[in-house]
Amino acid sequence: MRANWLCPQGVTLYLNDRTLFLSLSGENRVLAINIETQEVLGDYATGEAPDGIGYSPLVLQKTISY
Distances in Å between the alpha carbon of 15 and those of 3, 32, 46? Predict the structure, then answer.
């Protein structure tokens, strides 16, 4: 990904306080990032130009395992 096109728009923390979710409007993606190690844990395609982010712990527990 080219840094000048990332366009971060929204950010939220997962319940464990170590995982950050960042929406990238210019890339149509959401990244899950470990804030302690700065490792990208997941890279998810979204619809066009995501401009915010939110989550439901009930849905995440079924789809993402750490």
Answer: 28, 13, 22
